[in-house]
Design a protein that fits this description.
Number of strands: 8
Protein name: Lipoprotein
Strand order of the largest sheet: 4-1-7-8
Distance between the termini: 39 Å
CATH superfamily of the largest domain: Type VI secretion system, lipoprotein SciN
Keywords: Signal
Number of domains: 2
CATH architecture of the largest domain: Sandwich
Organism: Hylemonella gracilis ATCC 19624
Radius of gyration: 20 Å
Order of helices and strands: HHEEHHEEEEEE
CATH topology of the largest domain: Immunoglobulin-like
Length: 167
């Protein structure tokens, strides 16, 4: 009990001093306190991503893939469920949700393997991470949740995308 009381006092002191120091310090202090008391929002585990495209993927053409790190729940709810909707609205969404999402875009030629691709900025603090894959003729390709596995391979086949979770 004494340990939790000490933490509570320390938390209050941290918050008070952080309030005097500025917003970024305050956010850091709040994150620390949330971690201590178990209220920390979920964070993405994704650290490694590999992209593979078959020779006949997307009619043997390059495949557009966007990896979107989502930093809050409201933004996650605002994002489209399908890849076709994402690519139609991408510029507007990147503008309206600029502070809440980070996007890393790729154009991967057919028959390629890209290991350990660059992930969106601050992915480790993301609330969720999604992959949008633009395949010709596949208007209903859904967003692919790649938040929690530490290492993922996205395998783009002729008319299908497979998520492979790696150990």
């Amino acid at each position: 009990m004494r340990d939790s009381a000490n933490r509570a006092v320390l938390s209050i002191l941290l918050l008070c001093s952080a309030g005097l120091a500025g917003c970024s310090v305050l956010r850091s202090a709040v994150d620390t306190v949330e971690t201590w008391i178990g209220l920390e929002p979920p964070r993405a585990a994704l650290r490694h991503l590999t992209l593979v495209t078959d020779h006949d993927a997307n009619d043997s053409s390059a495949v557009r893939i966007d990896i979107v790190a989502v930093h809050d729940k409201a933004a996650a709810l605002a994002l489209p469920k399908s890849s076709s909707a994402w690519f139609e609205q991408r510029q507007a969404l990147k503008g309206s949700l600029a502070d809440a999402i980070a996007v890393q875009s790729f154009e991967v030629p057919a028959g390629r393997l890209l290991k350990h691709v660059h992930l969106p900025h601050d992915v480790s603090r993301a609330w969720s991470v999604r992959a949008y894959v633009d395949l010709r003729g596949q208007s209903e390709q859904g967003a692919i949740d790649i938040t929690n596995p530490c290492s993922v391979t996205l395998h783009v086949q002729r008319d299908l995308v497979t998520k492979i979770v790696e150990p």
